[in-house]
Every structure is written in structure tokens, then in C-alpha cells.
Amino acid sequence: MNSLFDMPAPADAEERRRKPPVVVYPNGTLQPADMDLLHAARQGMAKVDEVIVPPREGGSFRVPKGHFFRIVSVEGSQVGDLNLWNAKDLSERFFSGKTRALHATHVGIGDRLWSILPYLRPMATITHDTLGWYGWDADGAGVHDVIGTRCDPYTNRLLKGDDYHQCCHSNLSRALAKEMNIPVQEAEFHVHDVLNVFMCTGFTQDTHQYFMKASPVRPGDFIEFFAEIDLLGALSACPGGDCGSEHSSDTVPCYPLRVEIWRPSPERLAGYVFPERNAYPRTHGL
Questions:
Q1: Where do the structural domains in the chain lie, given as residue ranges?
Q2: Cα separations (Å) of 120 from 26, 116, 227?
Q3: CA pair distance 138, 12, nearest whole angstrom
Q4: Can you tell me the distance from the alpha carbon of 84 to that of 263, in angstroms, rounded to the nearest whole number?
Q5: What integer pLDDT is reported at residue 284 of this predicted model?
Q6: Which residues form the DUF1989 domain (predicted)?
Q7: What is the rounded distance in angstroms from the CA atom of residue 27 to the CA atom of residue 100?
Q8: How far apart are CA 40 and CA 55, in angstroms?
Q9: DSSP secondary-structure letter at 272?
């Protein structure tokens, strides 16, 4: 034993450890997106809007249901923190924890971004990813994680003892406040755990701590989503740049990100079934 807190292993320790893993949420019964139809709908679509998110800042955008949107690397290796809301109801927002449980720690083509309870429906479906080749590296890291929360000034103060105002939490709060014309203190309560776009992360094999490493994203890379409902989005160009050394920093190189909104021809979506809110009958009690 190495410390007062180490406990001796029982005689049947190895037997206990050999119990087989069981997937908590087997997703074989999930209704998948019609990826063939969505792939066909991507052909011939037209870009109708774009938003540039400056380095170490946040920006907002809106995507009508049935449109596609892309987050694009434009100048250098840069990660982004993404929040999504129902454009008509901020109480329905992205649920990173359930997305992680239904899919995986990192998401890719065909995976869906789910909304919180009691709505629990797909908000967006990933339709293209130029970093799909990355897979899992020797450190156990992948790209586009739904593990981390977002860098924030409160944790920064807790760990470093100073105040930093360009954290992704702060950037997302300011972007939402500006978009909705509400006080930033009110907007902050709507900001939630994120999809870490382009971020390369995993858990260390020894201490099992969340780690980040330099993102493989390069100018021209993008991840693309299909809006399953009318969306309001906010994106922070993380002050960690490619997150290869630190975040919440004014010293690492940072670059802008571009959000593009694309409109497909309506006839190409003929027959597509858009998701309704979860059908669980709440009137029967919780």
C-alpha cells in the first residue's frame, strides 16, 4: 500500500474485475437519419449566409430546419466550442451527456446531437467531416468530443487564482446575450456543455484524466451538420487555439472560424421525416 487511503485487494479481486462490460444504452433501436437522402440533398445546395467568429471571441448564427451548416477552419489550426438551442425555445438545448451516452465520447458522420430532457430529440445530424480519417490515435485520443465542458472563468479562478474573460463560457454567454438582446448574466444560465469541434482529446492511461493535444485541423477542414429543427447556435473560437499546450490563454496562436449556412433544394428533402419532441407521456407521472 502506498498511502493510508489504499485498500488491500480482496481475495476475489480478479474475479470481480473480469465481469464483462455491458453497453448502457444499446443504440441499435435508434431510428437513424436517412443518410442516403441527406447525402443526395447535399448535392447542388447553395450557401446563403456565413458568420466569422474572431479569435478568442464568440459569435451566433441561425439555421432554419432542413438547412445544413458547416464550421470551417479558415486560417490556422483552431478548435471551437459549440452550443445549440431550439431557435424558438431556449429551454430546449443540446445535451452533450446523453449524446455521449447514445453515441460515443467523440462524434462523427451519422451521429446526432440530442436535446435535453424532456425533449430528447435530434437537433442536428453530422453529415460530413473532413477529419473523419483521424479515428483513434496511440494516445487514445479522437476528434470532436462531447466529454469536456468548456473553459470557464470560474474554474480558471479556482485553479490559477486569476481572472480571464475570454473563456469559451464567457464568449458563448456574450454571443447569446447579443443575439437575444438580454443581459449577459441572464444569457449565462442558458449556456451549456458543448461539442468541442476539432478538439483532439482523450483520457490518460495512467491517471485517467481528461487530456487535450494539438488538433489535426487545417485550413479548409470542416464539419457539417443538418438542422433537424430550427436552430440558434453560438460558437467560441477557443482561446487555446489548437489546444496543444494550454487554454484560457492570450499567448497561444488563435485563428478565426467560419460558420456557413447552406440551403438544399426543397425537392431533395421530399419524404424526410423531421423529429418531434420525445413521446414519453409526462401526464402519466415521472
A1: 48-256
A2: 16, 5, 15
A3: 32
A4: 19
A5: 65
A6: 52-232
A7: 12
A8: 34
A9: -
8-state DSSP, 106: B
Q: Where are the alpha helices (DSSP H) in 91-247?
A: 96-102, 153-160, 168-180, 184-187
Handedness of CA 102, 95, 42, 218 (dihedral sign): negative
CB 182 within 8 A of CB 65: no
DSSP class of 162: S
Distance CA 143, CA 232 (A): 23
For the four alpha carbons of 59, 110, 98 and 247, in that order, the dihedral sign comes to: negative
Q: Which residue in the block uniquely carries the three cell numbers 456557413?
A: 260
Question: Do 111 and 103 touch, CB atoms closer than 8 A?
Answer: yes
Give the integer Cα–Cα distance in Å for 123 and 141: 26
Handedness of CA 197, 201, 202, 208 (dihedral sign): negative
Q: How far apart are CA 203 and CA 102, in angstroms?
A: 19
CA 122, 123, 128, 131 dihedral sign is: negative
**Judging by beta carbons within 10 Å of its beta carbon (0-12, 13-18, 19+), is residue 7 exposed, middle or buried?**
exposed
Which residues in the chain land under pLDDT 70? 1-4, 284-286
Which residue, among 280, 249, 255, has the nearest Cα to 52 in the 3D structure?
A: 255
Residue 286: burial class (beta carbons within 10 Å; 0-12, 13-18, 19+): exposed
| Grid coordinates belonging to 240 | 487555446
**The pLDDT value given to residue 6:** 83
Answer whether 96's CB lies under 8 Å from 102's CB: no
